[in-house]
């Protein structure tokens, strides 16, 4: 029988401040951890450890240090295992304790981190199962897991391939209209630069990316952002002091100003979590149009 190993990589690196002491202990035990500035990156060439061995005393101590964090999978799992293992026996805190950590447990630990983080909107786990010797061509052996604050989703390479074969993009009229408004706002910013009017540094980066990759890529980026822009507009409409701001004239340019633009094919990225981005857009609107005046 061929023995398999599952190479697993977690992205992006996770800031130390986003993890409780217990979460850090568990992740650094089931994965290989590497320091990257103030963050830790996690990976393993053989697959995450299903069972970790830690002294009872250390585990109980770190659990106590993490007790102030509410609704923590790590806290619940470790507390339940310690309580179960302690029933009906004399417990030596120096004894080694075997703690089972299944994939669904460490994925929920990552989700807890995403929920609390102000810098990470999602975590991606990439896994590839390979045998110790060839041949091996199973498309289901490579998978990716997307962990967000609200969901944990899995897709194998075979699933992705089927989507590429069968999926026909469907763009709603709402998305088209939002993308056209974003395009109009981008053109207005370019016109402002040509007429030597001051603009935000983020917009300069947008124009640099536009110049480097061309109109076609720029339009693709704005189509990708369009649905998110509509969601932002819906959030802004719920603000207690909201005005009937024009999407094309006010909201769209404020969204472009609040995006981070990178000199590569990643294109526009949101800064911080969803709530932070909404707050940045709202601050831009209130600064430029404090009384809902007609923009541009």
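Q: What amino acid sequence fits the structure above?
A:
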């Amino acid at each position: 029988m061929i023995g398999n190993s599952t190479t697993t990589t977690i992205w992006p690196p996770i800031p130390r401040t986003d993890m409780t002491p217990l979460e850090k202990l568990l992740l650094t035990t089931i994965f290989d951890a590497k320091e990257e500035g103030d963050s830790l990156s996690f990976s393993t060439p053989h697959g995450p450890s299903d069972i970790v061995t830690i002294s009872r005393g250390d585990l109980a101590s770190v659990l106590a240090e993490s007790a102030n964090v509410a609704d923590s999978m790590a806290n619940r799992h470790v507390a339940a295992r310690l309580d179960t293992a302690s029933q009906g026996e004399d417990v030596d805190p120096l004894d080694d304790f075997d703690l089972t950590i299944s994939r669904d447990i460490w994925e929920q630990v990552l989700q807890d981190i995403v929920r609390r983080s102000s810098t990470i909107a999602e975590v991606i786990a990439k896994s590839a199962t390979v045998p110790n010797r060839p041949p091996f061509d199973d498309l289901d052996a490579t998978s990716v897991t997307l962990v967000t604050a609200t969901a944990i989703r899995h897709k194998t390479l075979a699933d992705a391939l089927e989507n590429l074969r069968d999926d026909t993009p469907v763009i709603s009229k709402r998305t088209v209209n939002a993308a056209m408004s974003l395009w109009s706002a981008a053109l207005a910013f370019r016109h402002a630069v040509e007429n030597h009017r001051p603009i935000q540094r983020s917009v300069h980066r947008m124009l640099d990316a536009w110049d480097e990759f061309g109109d076609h890529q720029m339009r693709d980026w704005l189509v990708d952002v369009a649905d998110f822009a509509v969601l932002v507009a819906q959030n802004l409409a719920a603000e207690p002091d909201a005005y009937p701001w024009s999407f094309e004239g006010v909201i769209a340019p404020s969204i472009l100003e609040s995006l981070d633009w990178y000199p590569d094919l990643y294109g526009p990225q949101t800064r911080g979590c969803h709530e932070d981005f909404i707050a940045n857009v709202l601050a831009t609107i209130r600064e430029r149009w404090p009384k809902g005046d007609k923009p541009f």
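Q: And what stands out in the fold?
A: The beta strands are 4-15, 32-36, 39-44, 51-55, 96-100, 122-131, 142-148, 152-156, 260-261, 268-269.
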